[in-house]
Amino acid sequence: MQNTTDPDADARNTLRLTGPDPRNWVPDRPGIDHNVAIIGGGQTGSTLAFALRRAGIGRVTVVDAAPDEPRAGIWLTAARMHLLRTPKNLPGPELGLPALGFQAWYEARHGEAAYAALERIPRTDWADYLSWYRRLLDIRVRYATRVVRIEPAEGCFRLHLETGGEPRIETARKVVLATGFTGNGGPTIPPVLRDNLPPSLYAHTDGAIAFEALRGKVVGVLGAAASAFDAAGVALEHGADSVHLFARRPTIASVPITRSRGYPGAYDNYHLLPDRVRWHQAIRFRRAGSTPTTDAIERVVAFPNFHLHLASAWTEARAENGHVIVRAGERSFRFDFVIAGTGYFVDLPARAELADIAPQVLLWRDRFVPPPDEADAFYGAHPYLGAAHEYLEKQPGSAPWLRDIHVLNPAGFVSFGLPSGDVPSIRRDTPQVVARISSDLFLTDIALHEKRMVEDVAPDFAAAAYLSALWRG
Questions:
Q1: Which of 40, 125, 200, 411 lies 20 to 30 Å from 392 when distance is taken between CA atoms?
Q2: Closest of 339, 379, 135 to residue 233, by C-alpha
Q3: CATH code where residue 124 lies
Q4: Which domain holds residue 326?
Q5: Same domain, 215 and 90
């Protein structure tokens, strides 16, 4: 219900009724700065920070390479859709406290009828909600702090950081990679672009694109998933002369193949499936293709200067007098600028911060040999994650510290059936990771906890409180 006087009243009352945060129970260790370091301050990192606090785990830091909150995450940067692609009523960062959820936040500001009228959540409203969530819960993100290197050390990790351009080293017992789509690799730039064009003539949808500079320009978009359609839409809305979108398939992917396993049994227990089943599910998704939303298609086809090319892979590209000449099928096209909506690759060694650990991480290709008709190098490069999203050792016993790095980014797709870090994964994955972090920290210090649990406890009352009632019969 809309509260015109204090829209945060219900949320604050929920926090009051939930009770105070437990005190930090993790024993301090000499030379350790943080019990947990969360790399990435977006929706996943912020939710995890709140969940760890509610589990009584203190000394948690959240760092983000973005210079400030508006430029952290994707919602006000690389994301260009009008509406989120997920249903508006999915559980998310509220962690079972409805007054902290998007619906409560939105209704408190706009009313129940306004929320009921939403088809899906507007992207900018979601960004505003996450900003409110961090402020209300006092989730403090250290912006302009980039992790340069994660170095294993005795009983901890040395985090080599750059903060405001200045190097520093901090230590943490646990590390969580809440680093989005590029966290275990980077944006995929097809060789036809990367090897033949100067960077000034193309961009990936993951990057900053000066759409205002595309007014009056002819733009080519390579790819047919949601981000490609979104970029095409923004270019058209900024006055591009025309936009041509090229798909390598003969049709646009329209079957949301993962929906058939979206019920609680499969969702909650996906990690328990045999490797062959999880791999087959990933292959089914790859063959069906990533689907754009209906509104993303409607957004572009509303423009008469939008042109769709099916079964039109780019076989050649070259720069000519400041333009891009593209060969697709039997035809050539001339563009002023091209945009690659071509997804992301997974390759741990490509991430500088993971260079020390990447050679020892177990990958799917190390663990599982698929049948020949399901061979796939892309999925084979994904890390094979443990039950709490932790890295596992390629060689047992060689790097036991890997279990202290938890991965909450889309590299968990093959292991968990969802791109971890997206809204649908938050409800399931956050409790799993928090429970493992809690048990690991507790059991590692079991001797201290044993001692603590047998310490003398002061009595609540003296015998005088009941002596007068003793039966003396």
A1: 40
A2: 339
A3: 3.50.50.60
A4: 189-253+289-342
A5: no
> Token match 């829209």: residue?
7
- Report the domain count for the chain: 2
Q: Provide the whole-model pTM.
A: 0.95
Question: Does residue 359 sit in the same domain as residue 437?
Answer: yes
- SS3 label, residue 73: coil
211 and 176 housed in the same domain: no
DSSP code string of 168-215 = EEEEEEEEEE---TTTTEEE---HHHHTTS-GGGEEETTS---GGGGT
User: Is the separation of the CB atoms in 231 and 204 below 8 Å?
Assistant: no
Residue 64 to residue 45: CA distance in whole angstroms: 9
Task: Look at residue 383 and give its three-state secondary structure.
Answer: strand
Q: Which residues contact 280 (CB under 8 A, 6 or more apart)?
A: 374
- Residue 334 counted as domain residue: yes
C-alpha R_g of the chain: 25
- Residue 33 has what pLDDT? 98
- Judge whether 1 lies within some domain: no
Q: Are 159 and 120 members of one domain?
A: yes
Residue the block writes with tokens 């050679």: 359
Does 78 lie in the same domain as 54? Answer: yes
Write the pLDDT tens digit of every residue in 5-14.
899 999 999 9
Whole-angstrom Cα distance, residue 466 to residue 451?
31
Q: Is residue 15 part of a domain?
A: yes
Copy the structure tokens of residue 311: 């079964």
Tokens of 44: 């996943």
Among residues 363, 366, 369, which one has the least CA distance to residue 382?
363
CA nearest to 436, candidates 57, 7, 90, 131? 57
- Distance in angstroms (rounded) separating the CA atoms of residues 51 and 54: 5
358 within domain boundaries:
yes
- Per-residue pLDDT tens for 211-246? 999 999 999 999 999 999 999 999 999 999 999 999
How many Cβ atoms are within 10 Å of 36's Cβ, its own excluded? Answer: 25
Q: In this predicted model, what pLDDT tens digit does every residue of 386-442 receive, in sequence order?
A: 999 999 999 999 999 999 999 999 999 999 998 888 899 999 999 999 999 999 999
Q: Are residues 224 and 113 in the same domain?
A: no
Q: Does the CA dihedral 68-69-70-76 come out positive or negative?
A: positive
118 in the same domain as 165: yes
Structure tokens at 64: 């983000």
Q: How far is CA 259 from the centre of its chain?
A: 20
Q: Report pLDDT digits (tens) over 44-58.
A: 999 999 999 999 999
Task: Name the residue with tokens 């002369």.
Answer: 241
For range 104-128, the mean pLDDT: 97
Domain boundary (342, 361, 376) is at 342
**305 in the same domain as 406:** no
- Boundary of a domain, candidates 300, 320, 342: 342
Average of pLDDT values for 334-355?
A: 96
* Whole-angstrom distance, CA of residue 362 vs CA of residue 393: 5
